[in-house]
Design goal:
- This protein is of the alpha+beta class.
- It has a single domain, classed as Roll (Thiol Ester Dehydrase, Chain A).
- The protein has three helices and five strands, in the order E-H-H-E-E-E-E-H.
- The protein has a five-stranded antiparallel beta sheet with strand order 1-3-4-5-2, with helices on one face.
- Strand 3 and strand 4 form a beta hairpin.
- The radius of gyration is 16 Å and the shape is globular.
- It starts with 9 loop residues before the first strand and ends in an 18-residue tail after the last helix.
Amino acid sequence: MLPWDYPQPFTMTVQPCADDIDGLNHTNNAVYVRWCEKIGWAHSEARGLSLIDYQRLDRAMAIRRGEYDYLLPTALDDQLTLGTWLFASDGKLTLERRFQLIRDRDGQTVVRGRWDLVCIEISSGRVRRMPPEFRQVYLTEMVQTIGSASPPLSHP
């Protein structure tokens, strides 16, 4: 069992390929950001909200701020498991998503990340309230944090 920071992550396996490796002979940091985007969409779709739904509702959860801590390097063909959670929301406009990437062979956390998301109207780009469909899907999926401390992003 992998040492997750929070219970019941939505997970996907990832593995660096040759195109992901940079001049320092490890996975380029931009690859981790792409993987976070990929799992964010996969999690949303698994819960019932796809890009088509976003377009139909003229609403989206847009990244206002992304924060990543790159703790350890990964190499070509490392087997990794990426987890994500919905963590906090004001129930109206904002949502927080967290990420943790674990190297399977030794259980080490190699990346932690966090997104601050805001609901926007796609057609105008303006901040708007979450539609009921967003609240129903996203707010019921949030990690319960009462009585549990958040691990800091800056150390493994």
